[in-house]
Amino acid sequence: MRIMLIDDSKTMRNIQKSVLKQLGYTEIEEACDGQDALSKVGAFQPELCLVDWNMPNMDGLSFVKAFRQQNKTTPLIMVTTEAEKSRVIEAIKAGVNNYVVKPFTPDLLSERITETLAKCGVKA
Amino acid sequence: MASGAHDLDAHLQLRTDDRSLTGTLRVGPKVPAEHIDSEVFCVFLESRGVNRRKIDEEAMRAFVEEVRAGPGAEHAAIVVRGTEPRDGAKRNLDWSPQIARDIERINARKEALAEENEKGKKRPASDDEEPTNFYEQSAFIIVDAGQVLATVSPPDPGEDGEDIFGNTVPAKKSPAPAEIDPETIELTNDNKLIALARGRLVYSGVDRRIERTLRIAGDVGFETGNIDFPGPVEIEGGVRDRFVVRARGMITVRKLVEASTIESRRDIVLERGAACREAGRLIAGHTLRAGYLESADAECGQDCIVRHEITNCRVNARGMVKIPTGAIRGGTVVASRGIEASVLGSVQEPRTELLVGALGELEELIRQARTHIVETRSIIDPLVTRQKMLNSAKPGKLTAEQIESQMALDFEISEGHRRITALEEAIARLENNLRESISPVLKAGQCIHVGVVLWLPGCKATFRNELKGESTIKLDRRNKPVVDHRGETHPLSKFASVESDPRILSLPPLPGSQEADAADGQGMAA
Fold this sequence. Notes:
The complex is a heterodimer of chains A (124) and B (526). Chain A is of the alpha/beta class and 124 residues long. In chain A, 48% of the residues lie in helices and 19% in strands. A 5-stranded parallel beta sheet of chain A has the order 2-1-3-4-5, with helices on both faces. Chain A starts with a strand and ends in a 5-residue tail after the last helix. Chain B is 26% helix and 33% strand. Chain B has a 24-stranded mixed beta sheet that branches. A 4-stranded antiparallel beta sheet of chain B has the order 4-6-11-10. In chain B, strand 1 (12-16) and strand 2 (22-27) form a beta hairpin. Chain B is elongated and about 150 Å long. Chains A and B meet through helix 1 of A and helix 6 of B.
């Protein structure tokens, strides 16, 4: 399964990549902000995206809105420190399918990924 | 006419050669004059089955004139001729360009060597002076299975002949270019000679074959050049200084190996031995057997078995070093699975180093893994301290940066622990492999002299007293060196200065033996 990690922090991407590898996902593409991600989705064709909220150039919410204009189905999980209920609702309205609040444990991230894929009917 | 022919039986006779290609008519002295006639003679010949077409009319006329001119005498002449068959032309063999070049090179080498011998030079004095490198240029052609060796001109069927009676005389087919061994060389339908085996091509004389075993009647030296052979090599003589013999099969040398290199992927057998003057190398993929080894550098994938003596050698055997009735004097002998010798060291006390239970490559891997663990701990320990400090500080609401940096810290620590766990598991597996691959035991049949230094895993023993009689030195359950001597077990320190030494990696005692030790300890305490 092709998974795209969109986060400006390389360490955070490494953490998420490590969890994904432990879950058996090896086809992983990285992007450092929303713009970088939009330039890569055409070629990579992700089947799942993990998106940070606060990023330079184009933040996660803007990416979700832009991405959803061209792709309605690919599951998106917002991985962020923004834990306020209003922010969560805003993100869901923009088109994210699930939400993980930092700090997360590997188990929680794994649980959210499995849950999201099942909900969206994507085979892991 | 037929009856006339019968009348002439007493006077005429037909003789043929063994293939009936010529017919000689013999006329007796009393032949009636009226019968001396070509037609009469032809009728006679036809009555003997001669094909009329084969009668040489010119010769017949001359013969009749000869008989008429010499009445009362016996006459004979060839008057009938068959047609000679034309046998198939001999097939020519053209060596492939590569083989042709090799043959040319070998011939040039032979000539150069003959010239050198004439000049009385036994070996090249310098590279400038000697254009032919007698070491590098082999005197043999080595071929691979499937290699095209030569092309042969197509077979010529020839033309059949006809004898004087009109019978066919078959032509002989083209003979083969030489005797070809069908076991090792195939002559294909498209007239190519293909090697069926890998080995030495025998190409001179009438014989063409491939020898799977390279047999050298004399020494490996300037006559042969270095040897690099894909199968077994048998050398009836010795191996001269600076020459190299490499083989994928077993190498057997009947006479002395001098300061040369012998390398086999399988066994090496030196029936007499090797005197390498600290310049030769012996590398056996499996076992090395020798009459004796002197000043040699030997590596063995398995055992090193010597009949008489190992003197001043550097031997490294992954199996045992066995010299049950001989001695090891001087040098350094390393054996993963132990050493067995009658005498170790000598009264002259040359330093004789023995390492038993050593297996360098595995030990190195374990050492590296242990170092990695130490390094990883040195990285994560400060991180753990920092993590504890952050946790105990209990600040209020964390910023996004603080949360991410805390996650990064947790991640680094968990990655470090994961790496340590993986390394510990790898070390455990390597230690098990090492345990199965070594046997740190030294057996001496007669004597261990002063001057012998013995390394066992984790310790070093320098013999300060001579140890006479049969003895076996090994490690006890606590990894302490002990000696079985005259029916009793003593600490090795009774005969030698023992100190701990990391040259051979010490393995931790197995869990079972620790329990046994604990039980021993309790027993002792009680």
